[in-house]
Design goal:
InterPro entries: GH. The chain is built from 22 helices and 20 strands. By secondary structure, it is α/β, with parallel strands linked by helices. The N and C termini lie far apart (about 70 Å).
């Protein structure tokens, strides 16, 4: 049971980290492994899957007839990667009083295992997965069944709480908030369960967020209750193929599931009880990945900032691109030029296998007062694309907005960030409406250390990556290890939500220090370092290549 209300305000400060309400606490991303036999044969494959998908919590079904040694290596290596392992056990019949001993057995097993295990080999929690509504008694004698379920849960949580640091959790169907507990019509089964456990995992098995039958609506009451009771809440979705298509992401696939879950995390960020997401389960999630994924050619891009060069240096630009295997150009537009000014250039570039993305931007474009300038660029590009042939169309719109160079950034950063976010949302919505244009931005790599206003546990760069088709991280350093250090966590995050990252480097002379640019080292050394960056980031499907800033400096750079 939770502490009496009179003590809650004190406990919130002193024990908050135990209940998941520290603002900076990292959210969990969990999955279930029901086939415990695979942790021996497929250990490295499982751990690699966790690394690639940002998983930091595994609910592992425990076969209690196996020796303790069977689990030690797996749990030790998982812990070393930052992945907690919790035991999961249960059966619909475990709700019956006659099976209370089975609940006690799993607690006893974990206790004994942890006593013999080293600190880094220990199980950190136990989750119950009891679904008594699958028993015939649910229809014929529901009140008795719920009472016995309650009694077993109280016995279980009482025993778990005797083990210091062991988390007690439960998996619950979302609709149990409509079922009252016997004798207390105003208290639902969900409310009662939320009060008993440290963490509740709501099985919100739907494939969409919005609407009356969407995930957000289905979990709202549980989250409000958990906010009051200081209980963590995980939101679970399914990727197993089910007869009800709307109850699983099996048809939509892992990429769409990741996109929806990223949006879910953003929407639920205001609930202090929201502790993360869980995907059911490892086997089906792994199988949902394409068997033969199409590997897209990586970008090698550059920037053309002077719009007049499209008219004066078209042949030189295209020859330079061919010589240097450039396949992406961010081209700043002069909107005063007629459409004909760009048609030949874009057509010839695309014929040579080069994507051309229209570019614009200025620090003030982060401010609400400048949103019209962004919309003007978007509307111009869309009108241009409608007026020209398919092979002459821009394939994306790229913004370069760097508001941190303005004095107002230092005076009121949160206000600037909020305006910037609103402008980006408007930009993406307008760009993606009625067309196939790709929306992208430049982003300083260090913005992963700046939180979203009002959401201190969400890095601003993560929020931005979620919005765009691809994000170009300006990792302006002159050594591969430093470049990778700046971007790897963001590349990993992008992979977890199905987004793309381009890594940009600088060739312009810099007065901020020699380590910022390849101006001193030369272009040969730049390419050697970028090869090392590619090797380091190659395992991430989100890594889409490099962009070199910028054409003018690159072509004149020393070898």
């Amino acid at each position: 049971m939770k502490a009496a209300p009179i003590y809650l305000s004190v406990l919130c400060l002193t024990l908050g980290f135990l209940f998941g309400f520290s603002p900076a606490e990292k959210k969990s991303k969990a999955t279930w492994i029901w086939q415990s036999e695979i942790v021996g044969d497929e250990k490295q494959e499982i751990l690699e899957f966790c690394k690639n998908n940002g998983i930091n919590l595994i609910y592992l079904r425990i076969e209690m007839n196996k020796p303790f040694d069977y689990y030690r290596a797996f749990i030790r290596e998982a812990n070393a990667m930052g992945v907690e392992v919790h035991a999961v056990a249960g059966h619909p019949a475990w709700a019956l009083k006659s099976n209370e001993k089975r609940l006690m057995n799993i607690v006893k097993w974990v206790k004994n295992y942890n006593l013999e295990a080293a600190e880094d080999e220990r199980i950190r929690g136990i989750q119950l997965d009891i679904q008594p509504y699958l028993l015939p008694f649910w229809e014929t004698d529901r009140e008795r069944l719920i009472r016995e379920w309650q009694a077993n849960v109280q016995a279980f949580t009482s025993e778990v709480k005797k083990q210091p640091g062991l988390v007690a959790s439960v998996a619950l169907a979302f609709w149990l908030d409509d079922i009252p507990v016997p004798g207390e019509q105003s208290v639902s089964v969900s409310q009662w369960m939320i009060e008993q456990f440290d963490t509740v995992c709501i099985m919100a098995y739907r494939d969409t967020l919005s609407g009356k039958n969407g995930i957000l609506a289905l979990v709202e009451e549980e989250l409000k209750e958990a906010d009051k009771l200081k209980t963590r809440v995980m939101i679970a979705v399914n990727i197993k193929k089910l007869s009800d298509d709307h109850a699983s992401f099996a048809e939509e696939g892992a990429e769409e599931m990741n996109r929806q879950l990223a949006l879910l995390s953003e929407k639920l960020g205001d609930h202090p009880s929201f502790s993360g997401i869980a995907i059911h389960d490892y086997r089906y999630w792994k199988e949902a990945a394409p068997v033969d994924p199409v590997k897209k050619e990586r970008y090698k891009g550059t920037y053309i900032w002077r719009a007049e060069l499209i008219g004066t240096e078209k042949k030189e630009i295209l020859a330079f691109a061919k010589k240097n295997s450039v396949n992406l150009l961010y081209v700043r537009l002069d909107l005063e030029q007629p459409y004909a000014y760009y048609r030949d250039f874009v057509r010839e570039a695309r014929a040579a296998g080069i994507e051309v993305h229209a570019m614009g931007g200025h620090p003030v474009w982060a401010l609400a007062e400048s949103r019209g300038k962004i919309m003007k660029l978007v509307n111009w590009v869309k009108a241009y694309n409608q007026a020209v042939e398919t092979g002459e169309q821009f394939q994306g719109i790229h913004l370069d907005i760097e508001p941190y160079v303005m004095p107002v950034w230092r005076k009121n950063k949160d206000s600037v960030l909020r305006q910037w976010m609103a402008n980006i949302q408007a930009f993406v919505e307008a760009t993606k409406q009625d067309g196939q244009l790709e929306a992208s931005v430049d982003l300083a790599a260090w913005l992963d250390r700046t939180p979203v206003p009002g959401k201190p546990d969400i890095p601003f760069s993560h929020w931005m990556i979620e919005q765009l088709d691809h994000t170009t991280l300006m990792a302006f350093r002159d050594r591969a290890d430093r470049i990778v250090g700046l971007v790897e966590s963001q590349v990993k995050y992008a992979q977890s939500i199905g987004k793309k990252i381009v890594v940009a480097v600088e060739t312009k002379e810099s007065h901020e220090g020699d380590e910022i640019t390849f101006y001193e080292e030369g272009m040969g050394e730049m390419h050697r370092q970028l090869q090392q960056v590619t090797k380091a980031l190659d395992p991430y499907t989100s890594f889409m290549g490099h962009a070199i800033h910028a054409y003018d400096y690159w072509k004149n750079g020393k070898e």
